Amino acid sequence: MTHAFARRGIVAAVAVVALALTGCASDSAGGKEGGDASAPEELTPVNFGYIADFNGASLLAVAEDQGLWEEHGIEVTTSVFTNGPLQIQALGTGDLDFGYIGPGAMWLPASGEAKIVSINTLGSADRVIAQAGIESIEDLKGKKVAVPEGTSGDMILNLALESAGMSINDVEKVAMDPSTVVAAFASKQVDAAGIWYPLINTIEEQVPDLNILAENDDFAETVSFPTAFVSAPTFVDENEETVSKVIAALRDANDFRAENMDETVKLTAAMLKLEEASVEADSKNVKIMTSAELDELTEDGSVAGWLEGMNSYFVGAGKLPEPVDPATYYTGDLYVGAGK
């Protein structure tokens, strides 16, 4: 991805910190030069944030390798982040144009701080893990539990506690960034954590006898866990043509991923400088849908249903004062329109 222009201040600062924390990110997937022969000569510059895992990076890796950004008239510069809320902040300050969030950050678009321009996947990578000897959610009462605030790790912890008739007040919640959760759990400074794969793989290397107390699939009948690409509301309103171009590129990358999973794993591993086996394992924790399927799911109200389920959870968790109509923050019309 091109670096013809310098990153703006906050993105550069956050990206440097995030790179140091994750140790597994790259600004380039090492892809093809020039894109399609019919690509427009004038490219629209876009700053795009991502998280250094399969969910957060795979479409960016594919779009770069396949020349899809250039084909759709976009020049992309990427910056790695450790979570979705940080990207929402950068969208708000204008230092990012687009970003990626997991289900735990979906309350931020619902709060009006971003708009969802494209659904990415349905995730199932989140877990509540505990040290050996802690066998159930009920055993967490009074225990120290680490969690990255406002993320899907936070969400899975709250869902698990609720299912056991407990609340966050029944544990000693310790807010940490994701990499600190890994270190704290591995060094047994905390009793449990709400966290996700592939970070759990790293923890398991040091704590092989950890227990998994809860996972996304435990709540599949009541809530789905969508991941998505987002932009600032003002950017969407003022740059609809650019947004449509980006969505079109993401749609093409999504369909490539759906049809070429092995190649997508390789491209993502190269972008993130990770072992292919690790990225492949991470890819097993997602449900991938084609763009045509996402069109249908958008038009028949399924996506709105997922987001309404998120809203209900976030109201109960105190993140939202009341449910919000997904039509106010999911640009489904733009997503479907970009495929026509």
Automatic annotation (TrEMBL):
The keyword Repeat does not apply. Residues 60-260 form the SsuA/THI5-like domain. Keywords: Signal, Transport. Its main location: periplasm. GO terms for molecular function: ATPase-coupled transmembrane transporter activity. Residues 1-29 form the signal peptide. GO terms for cellular component: membrane; periplasmic space. It holds the Pfam family NMT1. PROSITE patterns: PROKAR_LIPOPROTEIN. It is found in: Periplasm. InterPro entries: ABC_SsuA_sub-bd, SsuA/THI5. Belongs to the bacterial solute-binding protein SsuA/TauA family. This is Aliphatic sulfonates ABC transporter substrate-binding protein. It comes from Mycetocola zhujimingii.
